[in-house]
Design brief:
The complex is a heterodimer of chains A (410) and B (240). By secondary structure, chain A is α+β, with helices and mostly antiparallel strands. Chain A has two domains: 188 residues, no CATH class; 153 residues, no CATH class. In chain A, 57% of the residues lie in helices and 17% in strands. By secondary structure, chain B is an alpha/beta fold. In chain B, 37% of the residues lie in helices and 29% in strands. In chain B, α3 crosses α4, α3 packs parallel to α5 and α5 runs parallel beside α6. The chains are: A alpha+beta (410), B alpha/beta (240). At the A-B interface, α1, α11, α12 and α14 of A face α2 and α3 of B.
Chain lengths: 410, 240
Amino acid sequence: MLKILFDFKEGIIISLKAIKANKLRSFLTTIGIFIGIVAVTTMSTAIVGLEEAFKESLSAVGSDVLFIDKFEWFGQKDWRYYRNRKNITYDQYEALVEKYHKAAAIAPVERTFGRTVKYKEKSAQSTMIYGTNEQFEKTNGSIPQTGRYMTDIEVKASRRVCIIGSDIAELLFENEEAIGKEVKIDGVPLRVIGVFEKKGSGFLGMPSEDGQIVMPLKVFNRIFGTRRRVQIAVKVADVNKMEEAREEITEVMRIIRKVPPGKEADFSINQQDAIMDAYNATIGVVATAGIVITILSLFVGAIGIMNIMFVSVTERTREIGIRKAIGAKTWSILTQFLSEAAFICLIGGVLGVIASYFLSLVISKLLPTSMPVSIVVLSLFISVLVGLLSGFLPAYKASKMDPVEALRYE
Amino acid sequence: MNIINIENIAKIYEVGTEKVHALRDVSVKIDKNEYVAIMGPSGSGKSTLMNIVGCLDTPTQGLYDFAGENVSQMNDNELARIRNKQIGFVFQTFNLLPRSDALHNVELPLIYAGLSKALRRERAEEALENVGLQDRIHHKPNELSGGQRQRVAIARALVTKPSIILADEPTGNLDSKTGEDIMTLFDNIHSQGNTIILVTHEEYIAEHAERIVRLKDGLINQDEKVRKRIRKTSAQMESN
């Protein structure tokens, strides 16, 4: 073992000299690997970033919540098929509450996007407005940081109260206290009773929870009308019994919506997992494409290394002859050229990682990411591996040279 | 005790379908501290014999016993070990590594012998001092004269304290004055107890040896002791 380390150390010293003697050539050779490593590192950083961003924007929605809706998230059928289903109504929500008792929380949700909220002269645009009940706090997972959530009495009595997202609070009130103030939506005044805690940016254009306003459903209907579809959010009591709950709710909803036995249900029960699955499928395609591109670029780089190593071996035939004559064993020559190839690649790898670091700074403006150490280690490992693989044939050729022939080489 | 014991070796190359007998049937024994010159015209097989004696190549037939070890059947790595420990090569074209300085060139065999860095350096410096290059240890081959290069090569050959020094036309690329200096160096090395085998086609170089083996057409044509004329020559040179 020690002998191997010794050979490697000597091999690296020798190869350093050779690289130094052929600076430009080594540098050009290493560009292939450089590009490959930049591809590996940037790709992985971007994928990790996408995943982080996605999870972050989903974390608020509990995985133990089922969403009953006429639309199916990532449904297989044409969008119009779902659109043509009958809306779920408020009455159906009430019927569900009456018939299904195992839920931890049930909330009817109507929403509208792109509304303007005003406070005195200031206004916040493109807000997402939810009309719902007091149980929305549990199904949605948005917790007020200051103030409080609305109560069931406020919901039943249709009080004009609202809880606003932190971005809206900052925009409208700046340093003022928001609680107790009146904001206006479509001219209707609402009293702010709470401000949600800050969640951070939404994922790739998804509306941020920091831009939302929650109010009692009846108040919402008074401002925006009653023709919207209702989505019913059900928080299941036992996370381990999601499938069971799903089946029971499907059964109850079929009865409520009078779906004849044997017929396909005219509603869908959605789960956050569906988003995750769809996301994983997408990212899978992206990752596969990325890996193929990366492997191709590394392969091209490897061919370059192999080519230049063959040239190097041929050029140094005489040197190989001298080394063999004075006692270099097959292994020593093999090690020398392998370390040279690995070292050239490692230089490319290090340069690639440095370049990728700067690229990741650019990416981090779009995605919440930084370059993980594991990817740095992986990239350097890959570059050395490429060096060893592509250097093997030339090194083997060198190690098997006949010393008599090699010494005679001009 | 013979260091080299060669018995009935032959070397046959196959060129296409034709068989070339580079060596037909050669037997030679060389003792410790002998000073032998191998001579012969080109095509006589002297290069082939030198390669076999130097363990760079193995004979097709026959037995080669080197210091009690049968090298005729050895594999590449075993031969490399013998070359590293037992044989010091000096070549016509010096064969130094061009990018390495004199010190590193001399250290090289010790690297392959697996010596520690400190020990390597100490022995390489000592070897360079012995050939009178203590002031040139950090010079690269292209910064040295031909004679100095050959001295570096000789230091490299001596540094492992080998059983034999094998010199192939060591003065072939040098002017006659420098060549004579190098031969004086060989004479001194011999007088210190080393065994030297000299391959040459120059009669006056061969005369430095104590014994001349002449090859012709792959056979030993003549194997005779040289009268001590050489001693006189070197004594004459010193008196000049």
